[in-house]
Amino acid sequence: MKPSTQRLTQAVIHLDRLGRNLRLLQAQAGGRPLWPVIKANAYGHGAEIVARHLLSLGCHELCVADVGEAAALLDAGLRARFLVLSATLPEHAEALVAYGCEPVVCTLEMAEALDRAAQQAGRRVAVHLKIDTGMGRIGIRPEEAPAFLERLRTYSRLRIRGLMSHFPRADEADKGYSLEQIGRFRRVAEATRGFGIEFRHMANSAALLDLPGSHFDAVRPGIALYGLPPSRQIANPRVRDLEPVLEWKTRITFLKEVPAGTGLSYGHAFRTERPSLIATVPVGYADGLDRRLSNDLELLVGGLRCPQVGRITMDMSLVDVTRLRGQVALGDEAVIIGRQGGDQVTADELAARLDTINYEIVSAIAQRVPRIAVGALR
């Protein structure tokens, strides 16, 4: 039997919850195709684990950030159609064609490179034209779309499969700007009806939940698929039915009694005010536990909230478990994100402490933290 080398800090991925979230979002989409976004290692949840499960549930079109993400999954044996969401450069055209990706296009330089690579490979490549309706990141202006599409038509190896856009403010309570964007996109869609475009798509998680007018022909949910709300301003009550897919757990590797006045960790940024029982857990900023959470974080141990104390270090952190004297032992579980007993720590709670968003909390969990899939396969 091979000796265990598995890390004690793990991200547990609940596939049954992923499936339930998917079904909820499919119902919200009203039968339209749902193209899950699995970029950034599936928002930290493990792209291969998530993609395999989504494929088993019938999702065969997935969205990634770049060709490298798609290639890694295809090389691992996944057979899906990958929409590449980020703009890229002509140097990636050959790989995009070779891997059968569907890239976003918003420059003629990229269109030319894709057409040339497709000719050399004896293939055609499907592309999605990005319209900037107000995100201000990538994409052509709405009024440029008809002329740009006419140019794309001249490239014999390109098939214009999609017309797309994206929201910067759909997660806000005031939907005024997002409604203006929908209007802009709808006008572009009408003006380009004669180009044989198969899909017009715009909705992210927030828009899928709160802006039914944005659903068009397909939707691209990301954060909601993983059971996390796009923001606290989502009005749709169904957001409360989403279930967090990820739990982040570690285990106690050392326990020590220290007297009052003991300085802990680098810089002694924390000193005990009483005789204390201090636990060491093997999780630190190299695992994605933000150092700015030092002395401003609670882990669940024995079903109770226990404060993290001292500076979070690269590989280890300290937890004050004094209130669990006589009840806590080496190897006991400590929950960073997730439920234990009757309490729960959420990614949103950590995000609020850091003045950021839940997206950053989960996507920052490092690659070295193993993702462990649990739960029903369907």
How would you sum up this structure, described in words?
There is one protein chain. This protein is α/β, with parallel strands linked by helices and 378 residues long. The chain contains 11 helices and 19 strands. The protein folds into 2 domains: 32-229, TIM Barrel (Alpha-Beta Barrel), CATH 3.20.20; 246-374, Lyase, Ornithine Decarboxylase, Chain A, domain 1 (Beta Barrel), CATH 2.40.37. The strands form 3 sheets. Strands 1, 9, 10, 13, 14, 15, 16, 17, 18 and 19 form a 10-stranded mixed β-sheet that branches. Strands 2-3-4-5-6-7-8 form a 7-stranded parallel β-sheet. 27% of the residues lie in helices and 23% in strands. A hairpin with a 5-residue loop joins β11 (263-264) and β12 (270-271). The model has no long low-confidence stretch (mean pLDDT 97).
Give a brief rundown of this model:
The protein contains eleven helices and 19 strands. A hairpin with a 2-residue loop joins β17 and β18.
Give the secondary structure arrangement, pairings included.
Elements: E1 10-14, H1 15-28, H2 39-43, H3 47-56, E2 61-64, H4 67-75, E3 81-84, H5 93-98, E4 102-105, H6 108-121, E5 125-130, H7 145-153, E6 158-164, H8 176-191, E7 199-203, H9 205-210, E8 218-219, E9 246-251, E10 254-258, E11 263-264, E12 270-271, E13 276-281, E14 298-301, E15 304-309, E16 317-320, E17 333-340, E18 343-345, H10 347-354, H11 358-363, E19 371-374
Parallel strand pairs: 1-19, 2-3, 3-4, 4-5, 5-6, 6-7, 7-8
Antiparallel strand pairs: 1-9, 9-17, 10-13, 11-12, 13-16, 14-15, 14-17, 15-16, 17-18
